[in-house]
Amino acid sequence: MGPQPNYVIPLADVDGSHEPLVGGKSARLGTLADAGHPIAPGFCVTIRAYELFLAESRLESLVRMELDRKRFEDMRWEEIWDAALRIRSAFLSHPVPAEVAVAVIEALAPYPADTAWAVRSSAPGEDSANRSFAGLHESYVGVVGRQAVIDALRLVWASLWSDAAMLYRQELGLDPARSRMAVLVQAMRTEEVSGVAFGCDPRKLSCEFAIVEAVPGLCSGLVDGQVDPDWWQLRRSDGTIVEWRPGSRDEVGTPSPLLQEQDLSHLLGVLIGVESLFAWPPDIEWTGRAKRFTLLQARPITTLAPDGKDKRGWYLTLRPGMARLRKLRTRVAEELIPALEAEGIRLAAEDLEARTNEQLAEAIEERLASVKRWTKTYWDEFIPFAHGVRRLAVYYNDAVRPEDPYEFVGLLQGEDLLATQRNAALQSLAGRLRHNTPLCDAIEKACGSTSTDAMNWQQDVLAAVRSLMGGESFLTEFRRTLESVLDLAYGNTRLSDRPDLILRTVLEMARSIDQDVRRTTKSGIQTAETLTQRLLAAVGPERREEALETLEIGKLSWRLRDNDNLLLARVESQLIRAIDVAARRLKSTDRLAPGAKVTDKAAGPIIAGLRDRTAGEIVLLEETETERVTKSVCPDETPRQLIGQPAAPGLETGTVRCIRSSEDLGRFQAGEVLVCDAIQPMMTHLVPLASAIVERRGGMLIHGAIIARELGIPCVNGIPNVVDALKDADLVTVDGYLGIVTIGLPEFDLELAETR
Q1: CATH code for the domain defined by 8-187
Q2: Is pTM beyond 0.90 here?
């Protein structure tokens, strides 16, 4: 019998030669301890333990399947997040191998049972001079008890497959499937002050100065951005304090420094010693003052790398911490969303027809600036806050360990979305038509009119509808619906200016009004209240408030993520309205060709034309549709199957309706398979009519997937070029269990055909 594998190695026995087995973080700590630097005691769970876990659980094949489902470089970030969530859930559903669990328990045995542990990643190559994974892998602090340490061990292993970590490995040219993870377990040191320090100023290439940051209590408060630190700049040559900035911590009176001169001098000595030991300027984490000092970790300052290509900071923004989400909750929910809503209402109330040409030009400029400003706000603040629902997903799965990694989606049911209000308004209109055949016939005839001018529709085309019983009240409610919930831009079309498109959808809703009951029964999703109670039971009373806050922020971020799209679409609609008013005015004076296609891209020439009456006819550049590049589908052949992500379970066969433009919205018929680039909030009213959904954009938390799952409609997304691969009237079978779209007759029907 050969030597037993080393699943656990005491930190006291680790040195630099162990890095391939214990990872860079642990190996450096062992080297620091050998050089006389005080470190916290503990042990390392080696890569061999991780490999045994993969082998026994057969998770390596699952990881390969997730990574091979689609070319990694073709996967959107949402799809990578989905894969990461499924991998994480699989890791948590498999037990740690008995040999590893025994070795961990034996390593914990010499310490008191109430010892609090820090459980952190220590992957090979992690935090090297050119590959800093700081913050990309999980760390857990304050872990108490044997089972809690083993659970944290699995979570750290799983973090090797987080979305941010996989993206970063792809950027570095590493094969994610070959990655391995060791885990560092150390007894925590609880001191009154902790922090980070840099041997050189990380903002500059010069090493004339060192930087120190300190916070009260644990260093995690600083690393997670929860506590504002004291900040010092020290001259390396003599230790002189060049600058000190106190942290903002609601202190009464004049703040006093958290560290004294002797503490700063000690830290500078540690930085210089670590730099001498490793031959690179260090970035260290530490806790305690000079006399009770403990070095927590040391790594190179990667911002000094000469190529400047480190994008780790950007990947970290993909998962804001709870402190950041709290700040965003206040700012987004209480300030930005009300301001955006008020902006749309204000712009809609303005009488543009009464304005002079100069005033109209100014109105267009104001709207252009508003769209630009709010689009920037959308990316800078709305998008980061939207990750609150992803935090909820991970929190729920870690606590509940559900068999279905997307069970948490049920927590989002019943949220009061603007899109839900719009859909309810359309359903109300459909209800008025359901038993009124003459009214349905008149509206269908009106929808066949070649006129799409909104004013003409109101005055002439719908005259026959108005004369019928119930027609006037129907049109009054319809106009109110257009103004209140359909003042939206879809591409360069204002939906409120296309009543024909909306009425066609209302007719389809009236004809299929029983579908919702069937689908609600079929979906079988557990209620939000049931899942909430399951979550609270899993976390226990000591974490109840934490769970409720995570739930509240997650649901709010989901609700506002939908609403902000619609509110921004209203501001965009008001820009289009102003451009349309100006275009009609210019056409009436022969300054603009009657057939000129006017889009938001025409704003500049139109503004110039309004201001310069002496100029001749305004020429608008014709917009050409960008040629689609079809990589996976040959033009002369139709594939039998398209592979995507299973986004909502179910199996349905139906004919395709591709939504490429606003015109297609009015063509969609009940029972068709909705195929599109992505379900946008402006078009979710079509989803209840669909038998299935197929999208180019991938992700379980995009609008189409969530709504489809709630209604019990199968959904497959993440299929490249799907709008090119499928055409209207194609017969397809959508398998939401496996993520497959089969083109043509289903296999069973083919077998029947062959036997005839």
Answers
A1: 3.30.1490.20
A2: no
